[in-house]
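ok here's the first one, seq then struct tokens
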Amino acid sequence: MSTMSEKVTNGPAWAQPLGRVPSGIFILTIRQGEQETGMLASWVMQAGFDPPAVSVAVKHGRYVEDWLAAGVPFVLNLVPESDKTLLKHFGKGFTPDEPAFEGQAISRTESGVPVLLTAMGHLECTPQTHVDAGDHRLFVAHVQGGSLSQDVTPMVHIRKNGLNY
């Protein structure tokens, strides 16, 4: 519990150091039936070696949350530090009926999930479990495949405080 002496301009004293926890910038792409989309994902972390696993946090209320909870495979596209175009395109979000990949160069995994060709690489993932974590749902997924197409520095996000994106 925070006290008034712990308050800082942007929230409690712990908010600023929490915001300094670095996170990568990824574009999560997913396809369920004939529907597909992509979304910006910044709370992604490696979560295991054997089997290789990642964790991904998705805010409650995003329709992708239901797809992931049902175990639909997805791809994490790694955004290169020097490329703001993917961030600009996918950062706005898409409605379920809005085409997310117009103007984007893509290939597809064996299961049909879009892979962004301008990303520095990708990981093909299958959700295994999830837990509600307050305003987000945390998914753990096994990495089934992927590749690195550009050996460049990935984009990293550091926030001013840990109370918002």
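and now the second one, same deal
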Amino acid sequence: MNKHKFMVIIVLTVMGLFVMSAHAVETSGSASVDVFSNYVWRGQTLSDDIVIQPSIGITYSGFGANLWVNYDTDTNESNETDLTLNYANSIENLSYDAGYIYYALDGFDDTQEIYLSLGYDVILSPNATLYWDFDEGDGGYLFLSVGHSFELPETLSLDLAASIGINLDNEIMGLDEDDDEFTDFYDGNISAALTIPVTENISIAPLIAYSFPLSDDAEDALKAIAEDVTGDDDADIIYGGINVSLSF
């Protein structure tokens, strides 16, 4: 990760938090820590051991800023820091979210995305998000998901979700067997989480998920990425962990 770019990320985040904290009465925030058996991002296996992923975010009148870090216990170092700036709102049952993500990476060139997400408040909560990497990836990724939360006794909830991803000539998503960028179905993911409220503002949620390729092109790309990171060329993976969340 370029140190100059990292400083830009920190400065932008601090400035955003400072401005929004001036209106603290109308500001909300959140913090969380994920501990997962592997770092899996859009079907890609990006770690060979347990990862710890803290994040902190703040919103004001729909505008938000979030800082997220990946700590790899195999290498004992933080190898990714992401800054997200966004605006989210809703019109009746339709929600929308537009934003910018800066990926600061160790060992790879940093990259940037913009995105637009649309969701509809009906059964299964369908959502579609288009990410466009205008930097290193020079391509897109379309994410489609559904999910449902089942209320359980003692204020618990069982959260089930399923998603598919479509690669749009995005080099960050890997190459096909001819070492070319490709447009094709990419990854599928199914997950189950049990949300357990601890206090009014704190909850924990154990999760298990299964990620798998959706096309031959995606399988070639995901195998190459997994082999480079873990030494194994498994394109699919079962992973899990726990999330601890705080709202304030």
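notes on #2: The chain has one domain: 3-247. Helices lie at 3-21, 216-230.
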